[in-house]
Amino acid sequence: MLLMVNLNAQTTYYVDAERPDDDGDGSSWATAKQYLQSALALAVDGDEIWVAAGTYYPDEGEGAAGNDRESNFAIPSGVKVYGGFAGEEESLEDRDWEGNETILSGDIDGTADDNSGNAYHVVIMEDVSEETVLDGFTITAGNANGAPNVAVIYGRDSQRGGGIFNRNGSPRITNCTISGNSTEGERSRGGGMYNHNEGSGAVTLTNCTISGNSTEGNYSEGGGMYNYNESSGVDKLINCTISGNSTIGNQSKGGGMYNHCQYGSPCYGVGGNANFELINCLITGNSSQSGSVPDRSGPGGGIYNFNGSPRLI
């Protein structure tokens, strides 16, 4: 008798905020998890998570503590997380991610008009492979306004990346809206997304909208997105819109995006390798507002580039 075992079997977990409880095993829509955190706790490299329309908070579910500002959705490497389901689909092709809005929200204390108690980061991706996927979500209401430098959460500065914080990862983020996130404080960065890659990491965003995010504070940078590259990889935005983002404060820069290539990196200086590509993207209505030193603040309302050689196509 020949016994064959598939060591790379993929498991799909299901999540539906409308479930009455979180007791299901997540193996079908009928037994779906109520909280995304609970499915993330189960998923390993190669698995998928299908998430039905609704609003999900990082302080709910397996291992989460209510109203904990350090809570976030940490996506495991190699896991593919898809939103936009009605809760009955049998294939990815059946979902409607535009009609079935699936929201990841940092508004953990439920006060929409006051973000002081919101999660520092809504989504975290660290050291993840290019097989890691986040697709079909709205990421909103993250507020990275912790103390600078000393307030470090598991190695992450809590003044960077209110919506998404990616470090040394190569995730594929597709069909997502990153909006209404913020960072606050001196040198705060990446209201919508903070991306810091070393080695060969490179993030790819496709068909995404980054809008209505902000950084506020002296020397704040990258209201929509802050890209810091020490990598040989090339970060890409494809068919994306960056609009209505802002930086506010003395010498703030890059309302829509701040692109920084570290000195000595492959992308550094004139003739360096491209560290960032924007392909068929729309960048509009962003601003970098002057502070009390107007002659030294506010450059790069749309994009501010420092040392790098980005490619715009």
TrEMBL record:
Transmembrane segments: none annotated. InterPro entries: PbH1 (IPR006626), Pectin_lyas_fold (IPR012334), Pectin_lyase_fold/virulence (IPR011050). SMART domains: PbH1. Residues 289-313 are annotated as: Disordered. PANTHER family: BLR4714 PROTEIN, MICROCYSTIN DEPENDENT PROTEIN. This is Right handed beta helix domain-containing protein. It comes from marine metagenome.
